[in-house]
């Protein structure tokens, strides 16, 4: 019996080391991964999701027999880098919602002191649901498997390349957010121009009181009409990034 347990331990040792090596990178990306890594999901569920991803990826990766301290740092940082660029693009929906709310005077809809908005929260939740429904875990597994071709186990990321990569992904996220908020910006410009003309024609009329219900209702209509296009555009950009995290979606 003891001999069997010793043989089992010796056989399971390399498998455990391989799993832990892969989990270092998976755990790093799970900290910032949209959807599976969001704070709305309980910690235990996120941990189980991370273990499941590591189990799925381990057979496809050739791992060393030991885990030195340097590898712990490099693998964790690689995972964080990939998770960060995905998080940048995921935040584009929230940024677009915040811009739309600021432009249409709905940024403090519920009296909060933070610039978060109902529009941003609705778009963010809808986008994450769309991403999960279209197979986010499978995209993440494919991304992680291919990441070992770009950055093998124990590889050190060049600082200048990582900085330019991160700045490029961040600028792309901001550009996408501005593009997604464009319908609301157009409505805000037309609304303010109309208020200016009315105020000039009838100075005695309190145009702000008349225009507030109009811009609120118009914003709801624009959101209903533009949300499918906004979510489809964002989802296409996110899938392109998952398929090619280095230059996906960036011209």
TrEMBL record:
Subcellular location: Cell membrane
Keyword Secreted on entry: no
Record key words, sorted: Cell membrane, Cell projection, Cilium, Flagellum, Membrane, Transmembrane, Transmembrane helix
Topology within the bilayer: Multi-pass membrane protein
Transmembrane segments: 12-33, 45-65, 77-101, 122-141, 173-193, 205-231
UniProt cross-references to Pfam families, sorted A to Z: Bac_export_1
Entries under InterPro entries matching the protein: T3SS_IM_R
Family note: Belongs to the FliR/MopE/SpaR family.
Entry protein name: Flagellar biosynthesis protein FliR
């Amino acid at each position: 019996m003891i001999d069997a347990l010793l043989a089992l331990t010796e056989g399971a040792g390399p498998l455990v080391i391989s799993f832990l090596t892969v989990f270092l990178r998976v755990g790093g990306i799970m900290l910032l991964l949209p959807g599976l890594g969001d704070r709305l999901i309980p910690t235990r569920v996120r941990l189980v999701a991370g273990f499941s991803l590591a189990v799925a990826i381990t057979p496809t990766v050739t791992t060393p027999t030991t885990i030195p301290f340097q590898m712990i740092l490099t693998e964790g940082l690689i995972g964080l880098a990939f998770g960060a660029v995905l998080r940048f693009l995921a935040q584009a929906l929230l940024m677009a919602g915040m811009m739309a709310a600021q432009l249409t005077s709905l940024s403090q809809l519920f009296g909060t002191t933070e610039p978060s908005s109902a529009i941003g929260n609705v778009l963010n939740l809808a986008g994450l649901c769309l991403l999960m429904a279209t197979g986010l875990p499978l995209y993440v597994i494919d991304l992680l498997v291919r990441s070992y071709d770009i950055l093998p186990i124990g590889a050190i990321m060049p600082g200048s390349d990582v900085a330019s990569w991160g700045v490029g992904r961040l600028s792309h996220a901001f550009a996408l957010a501005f593009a997604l908020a464009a319908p609301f910006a157009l409505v805000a410009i037309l609304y303010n121009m109309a208020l200016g003309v009315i105020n000039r024609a009838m100075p005695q009329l309190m145009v702000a009181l008349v225009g507030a219900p109009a811009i609120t209702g118009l914003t709801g209509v624009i959101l209903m009409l533009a949300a499918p296009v906004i979510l489809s555009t964002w989802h296409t950009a996110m899938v392109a990034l998952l398929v090619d995290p280095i230059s996906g979606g960036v011209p």
